[in-house]
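To: structure desk
From: M.T.
Subject: fold request, one chain
Message: Could you run this one when you get a chance? Sequence is below, nothing fancy, just the single chain.
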Amino acid sequence: MGEDLPRNVFTQWRHWCRFPHYFFDDPKMAGIEKLYDSVRTPIVAVNALDDLWALPQSRDAFVRFYSSAPVSRIDLNPNVLSGTVGHMGYFRKSAEPLWQATLDWFTDIERKNESAIHP
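Reply: Done. C-alpha coordinates follow.
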Protein backbone atom coordinates (compact mmCIF):
# COMPACT_ATOMS: atom_id res chain seq x y z
CA MET A 1 0.00 0.00 0.00
CA GLY A 2 2.98 2.31 0.36
CA GLU A 3 6.14 2.57 2.39
CA ASP A 4 6.94 0.27 5.27
CA LEU A 5 6.10 1.72 8.67
CA PRO A 6 8.80 2.08 11.30
CA ARG A 7 8.32 -0.63 13.91
CA ASN A 8 7.50 1.81 16.73
CA VAL A 9 4.80 3.49 14.59
CA PHE A 10 3.23 0.12 13.79
CA THR A 11 3.34 -0.86 17.46
CA GLN A 12 1.74 2.40 18.55
CA TRP A 13 -1.03 2.20 15.93
CA ARG A 14 -1.70 -1.44 16.80
CA HIS A 15 -1.99 -0.43 20.47
CA TRP A 16 -4.50 2.34 19.66
CA CYS A 17 -6.54 0.05 17.38
CA ARG A 18 -7.38 -2.05 20.42
CA PHE A 19 -9.46 0.78 21.87
CA PRO A 20 -13.03 1.41 20.65
CA HIS A 21 -12.25 5.12 20.08
CA TYR A 22 -8.62 4.74 19.02
CA PHE A 23 -6.20 6.96 20.98
CA PHE A 24 -9.04 8.93 22.53
CA ASP A 25 -9.55 5.96 24.89
CA ASP A 26 -5.86 5.46 25.67
CA PRO A 27 -5.26 6.44 29.33
CA LYS A 28 -1.80 7.71 28.31
CA MET A 29 -3.51 10.22 25.99
CA ALA A 30 -5.94 11.57 28.59
CA GLY A 31 -7.10 15.08 27.70
CA ILE A 32 -6.36 14.87 23.98
CA GLU A 33 -10.02 15.43 23.20
CA LYS A 34 -9.62 18.96 24.65
CA LEU A 35 -6.93 19.68 22.07
CA TYR A 36 -9.23 18.49 19.29
CA ASP A 37 -12.06 20.58 20.71
CA SER A 38 -9.83 23.67 20.56
CA VAL A 39 -9.48 23.43 16.76
CA ARG A 40 -11.61 26.05 14.99
CA THR A 41 -10.20 25.66 11.46
CA PRO A 42 -12.62 24.36 8.82
CA ILE A 43 -12.04 20.70 8.00
CA VAL A 44 -12.97 18.63 4.98
CA ALA A 45 -12.86 14.90 5.73
CA VAL A 46 -12.95 12.76 2.61
CA ASN A 47 -13.28 8.99 2.41
CA ALA A 48 -13.35 6.77 -0.63
CA LEU A 49 -16.27 4.36 -0.45
CA ASP A 50 -13.94 1.55 -1.55
CA ASP A 51 -11.39 2.25 1.23
CA LEU A 52 -11.20 -0.94 3.27
CA TRP A 53 -8.93 0.65 5.91
CA ALA A 54 -10.90 3.77 6.77
CA LEU A 55 -14.63 3.56 6.19
CA PRO A 56 -16.82 6.67 6.45
CA GLN A 57 -17.98 5.46 9.88
CA SER A 58 -14.34 5.44 11.00
CA ARG A 59 -13.84 8.98 9.70
CA ASP A 60 -17.01 10.16 11.44
CA ALA A 61 -15.95 8.59 14.74
CA PHE A 62 -12.64 10.42 14.52
CA VAL A 63 -13.79 13.87 13.37
CA ARG A 64 -16.53 14.05 15.99
CA PHE A 65 -13.80 15.12 18.42
CA TYR A 66 -13.32 18.30 16.36
CA SER A 67 -16.48 19.52 18.07
CA SER A 68 -15.70 23.25 17.67
CA ALA A 69 -14.63 23.13 14.03
CA PRO A 70 -16.89 23.22 11.00
CA VAL A 71 -16.47 19.78 9.43
CA SER A 72 -17.56 18.84 5.92
CA ARG A 73 -17.75 15.11 5.26
CA ILE A 74 -17.44 13.80 1.71
CA ASP A 75 -17.86 10.22 0.53
CA LEU A 76 -15.90 9.69 -2.68
CA ASN A 77 -17.51 7.38 -5.17
CA PRO A 78 -14.70 5.48 -6.96
CA ASN A 79 -16.91 5.13 -10.05
CA VAL A 80 -16.17 8.79 -10.77
CA LEU A 81 -12.69 7.66 -11.78
CA SER A 82 -13.85 4.51 -13.54
CA GLY A 83 -11.62 2.61 -11.17
CA THR A 84 -10.58 2.34 -7.57
CA VAL A 85 -9.52 4.95 -5.06
CA GLY A 86 -8.98 2.82 -1.97
CA HIS A 87 -6.98 4.10 0.98
CA MET A 88 -4.21 6.02 -0.80
CA GLY A 89 -5.52 6.33 -4.36
CA TYR A 90 -6.55 9.94 -3.92
CA PHE A 91 -2.86 10.87 -4.07
CA ARG A 92 -2.19 9.02 -7.32
CA LYS A 93 -2.12 10.69 -10.73
CA SER A 94 -5.24 8.74 -11.73
CA ALA A 95 -7.22 10.71 -9.13
CA GLU A 96 -6.31 14.08 -10.62
CA PRO A 97 -9.93 14.72 -11.73
CA LEU A 98 -10.87 14.80 -8.02
CA TRP A 99 -8.26 17.35 -7.02
CA GLN A 100 -10.08 20.39 -8.40
CA ALA A 101 -12.88 19.95 -5.87
CA THR A 102 -10.29 20.08 -3.08
CA LEU A 103 -8.66 23.18 -4.55
CA ASP A 104 -12.10 24.79 -4.85
CA TRP A 105 -12.78 24.03 -1.18
CA PHE A 106 -9.55 25.80 -0.15
CA THR A 107 -10.39 28.75 -2.42
CA ASP A 108 -13.84 29.05 -0.83
CA ILE A 109 -12.32 29.01 2.67
CA GLU A 110 -9.81 31.67 1.64
CA ARG A 111 -12.61 33.88 0.24
CA LYS A 112 -14.63 33.52 3.42
CA ASN A 113 -11.61 34.47 5.52
CA GLU A 114 -10.87 37.46 3.32
CA SER A 115 -14.44 38.72 3.52
CA ALA A 116 -14.38 38.32 7.31
CA ILE A 117 -11.19 40.37 7.54
CA HIS A 118 -12.18 42.98 4.92
CA PRO A 119 -16.01 43.22 4.93
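Reply (cont.): DSSP finds four helices and two strands in the chain. Let me know if you need anything else for the meeting.
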